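Subject: Interface between my chains keeps coming out wrong

I've been trying for a while to get a sensible model of this assembly. When I model each chain on its own everything looks fine, but I need the whole thing in one frame so I can look at the contacts. Pasting all components below, labels as-is. Any help appreciated, I'm running out of ideas.
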Amino acid sequence: METRMLNVRINGRAYEVPEGITILKAAQEYANIDIPTLCYLEGISEEGACAICVVEVKGAKNLQRACVVKVTDGMEVWTNTARVREARKLNVELLLANHPTDCFTCEKNQICRLRELAAEVGVREVEFPRTRSEWLPFDETSLSLIRDPNKCVLCRRCVNVCAKVQSVYAIDIVGRGSNSMVSTFLDEGLGNVECVNCGQCLLVCPTGAITERSEIPQVWKALGNPDKVVVVETAPAVRVAIGEEFGMPDGTQATGKMVAALRGLGFDEVFDTDFSADLTIMEEGYELIGRLKNGGTLPLITSCSPGWIKFAETFFPHVLDHVSSCKSPQQMFGTVTKTYWAEKMGIDPRNVVVVSIMPCTAKKFEKERPEMKTAFHYWQEKMGLRDEEAFNDVDYVLTTREAAQMIRESGMDFANLPDEQFDKPLGESSGAAVIFGATGGVMEAALRTGYEVLTNKTLEKLEFEDVRGLAGIKSAEVNIDGTILRVAVANGLGNARVLMEQVQKGESPYQFIEIMCCPGGCLGGGGQPISDHPDVKQRRAEAIYREDAGKPIRKSHENPEIVEIYKEFLGEPNSEKAHHLLHTEYCDRSCE
Amino acid sequence: MIRNELLICAGGACITSGEKSVKDALIEELHAHSIQDEVQVIETGCMGACDLGPIVVVYPEGTFYQKVTPETAHLIVSEHLVKGRVVESLLYTEPETQEKVQSGAEIPFYTRQVKRVLRNCGVIDPLSIEEYIARDGYFALATALGMTPEGIIDVVTESGLRGRGGAGFPTGIKWKATRNARGTPKYVVCNGDEGDPGAFMDRSVLEGDPHSVIEAMTIAGYAVGAQKGYMYVRAEYPLAIERFDWALRKAREYGFLGENILGSEFSFDIEIRIGAGAFVCGEETALLRSIEGKRGTPSVKPPFPAQAGLWNQPTLINNVETYANIPQIITRGAEWFRSVGSSKSPGTKVFALAGNVKNTGLVEVPMGTTLRELVFDIGGGIPGGKEFKAAQTGGPSGGVITADYLDMPIDFDTVKELGTIMGSGGLIILDEDSCMVDVAKFYLGFTVDESCGKCTPCREGTRQMYHTMERICEGKGRDGDIEQLGRLAEVVRDTSLCGLGQSAPNPVLSTLRFYEDEYRAHIYDKKCPSHVCKHLLTYSVIADKCVGCTACARQCPSHAISGEVKKAHIIDQSKCSKCGTCYEVCRFGAIQKE
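Reply #2:
Try treating it as a single job with all components included. I did that and got this:
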């Protein structure tokens, strides 16, 4: 059906716009007028709460909210009258009167939408008294996120992302009027409710009300300690996004500069989580092959994404036996570094500090899971360690943003650093590992290896286009020598929920499912640079696939370091030792 | 054989003033005289004259007994019913002529009223569906089911009925829009979340004549094409909920609700949903969210409920009083409905008369009645010989009507011109001692408390306005305050998301319009001309009148008064907390308040 076109006048000029379009979009796309917004998030948060985007519409008694009011035929809109400017300015002033003034020290000061807005509408003085007489306590219960309710402008973006995109419903508005605030069930705090630590709320928060729990001081301290061997690992999605923090265009492949910068910070070894991504493919791929051959529980579901794992443990405990027992690449890396590598290098594992740089806030939670102390148990008997000496496999997790902050603090000119290479042996990786950073990547990597292992033939075309792209749910049928493998990929937990409801009812048509907690996969993770560019995820994904295409090795099982670790240390994929070190178990959190 | 009926008003005010004990005493006395089988005791809905309660009316004579107590109740039985003698001491006394009035119909409070919405309130037993039927109840439903839905909507449209919830939107247009909206199922909702301070029109209808609302909602369901209705009533109205629920059961039993109503193809039922105490849930979009089980916060209109309401389906939502008009419009016709009221606001309006007026309670008058008739003829004037100053209408969303407009006919449009609104019908009378700045501050404080907090202007703007009002009343007003209030009021009105915020500045704007001089006195002279704002008062001793009894000094909680016995005392202004104790305890009029 053809879209009906409507006549609209914006600031006196006539435009033809399609039926169903909002005033905001019509002004933006047809009249080149950016109506300022604060609470609006297209498709996710369209509540008209902030009253900043107001415009005059002829015939309407009150100013109208451009973000939600749709254009009607013959409508006359005025976006720049004195009445409109005064309303916007006054509403911003009202928000400022309720907002802390510690902008100098606020983590979001460079990207604060409220600060930007105050400048846009020209607030030079707030004529109203400050309305916060006492500071509300922070929510510091979460291992991943910290909420400062004082900086909240009640835009509801976080609430809507959590509910509508992630279907987690961990936060909502409580209280009434000026006492209303974003909170959790019974004000228990994010750490004590169903929050999966994904950090999507942080990404959409226009102010500094939600930030990650920073581990920068601890990492600086470790780097300054001569007794420690500080090893860093970097997740696949970090390299295609970190450049944004230094003004480089979206989708810049900054792998070499990132390695150089991390070495410049003083890390003793700069390794790559991609190595353990390849390892994950070996373990998970063989797990899938085993289940397919032996009539095991299907579909098998990937386990790389800690936000997804907590989601499954909380909302779908009955599907946990479908979830791969493989640890995530981060945790495999920590274990391998503190066992295989430490052993190989003859370093006391207690002196090894593993820092991972992740596009993710949930990784900060994951590393603290009590079962993630495998290396300690490995060494406990051999070295006679006492229980009190227990150490985590991964010591510190920095988000992409935190890593960039450390680089800034060091004064390095990131964009002009010469490219450098990862250290060996845990720095070698395949193109299959790189694409872990995009939704569908784990699936594609597994298919590349699975196909060749199952058929003993060389895969002609490595790109599985059906599972690429930013669609929320993708599915494909893969012909493996005459056998059809049905696979599906979901990114964003709202989409995961759809697939899991099928699995729970026993109606899933798939044998293998990839789930990534965040929209777009890790490249859209809660630890990534904050951006309001609409196609930033697309750019990052393109960079990831370019990185893959440029790799000499593009299949996990062909990574020579992977071949070596199995030969030297692990034996076969899914061997007893591999199981002991690289696999884990889950718990039912539905009653927590 | 029943020879007499005793009607006892069981409205909220009468219950509070002891109706239950009066009823028990009456029944006990009937037994004592062994006439319990000859006299039927009926508890009715609110009779309206709340300050005369508890009220007992004896039929068939129609003798109206007021302020009956458990101690005096026996007289009604032993004197009136047994000996046939009217109990003079319990009759209403006409204040001007000092004459006793026997019949309720002769009391001025009632004579000027036109009872349409309240026609059954105080007349029938609300728990008896038979009594409702006996008063032509459900005849409108039967009539409607013989009409086409469009025909019904036409009658409602022609009647000119406008929404009694406050805004006065034409009811017929709403019905038509819901009927024409695409999508099934459709819903019919009744807004019984009456929240304005002092308003209790809807409660009285639900308590006193619940079937009229059930009948109207069912007719509405048939007219718009809905099979399901929701009665949303606030939790603070337990009696209304109880009686409405009982009425629902009876209506189902009699086949007025449920499958194939009165043998027709039409099926309809109603469910009660109880509010959780938020004023904003009286706003229709917030109310619908609340029925859905979500947090009751408003959303942007359009889409209007008629297009996308409950669960995004077309929904008709009207107020209790609006519905209560419907059955009679169907049975008596649009012309009859238009026979009273003004041309653009036909019909009657129920007001809850309160404040500084002699007769308080519930009154129903034709639209277009003047404020003078309401305050002086029905309300009996201002007590204590004080002057009438203003009437506050529309609660926290409204404003004031001043003495200059006493003779202006009141309807939806005339009050709007004065900068206030009709609202749901709260009418608070203010006498000369009222401080208009203080009144505005009170209502603004109510909105600040009841703002849901969703949109910036309502959440933050009303709070800033309140701070300024508070400062002004505390004597800390400064030059520019009036302008700042105006600036805030304009944007809060213009950009708030729902009616609550959009109308929140009205009490301030309205009082500023008519009483700017009082604001100026507070701000510039640091005086409250009505001596209400505590911080602006000065208490001092009139030395000539002070006999030195020491009563004030002994009672002063802040030890601000000193002086020797039998000599004039002095108040230390720096210590005075302006509590007014000295003013109250002085028996010689020696304390002055300025």
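Reply #3:
Confirming on my end. The CA atoms of residues 432 and 555 of chain A lie 5 Å apart.
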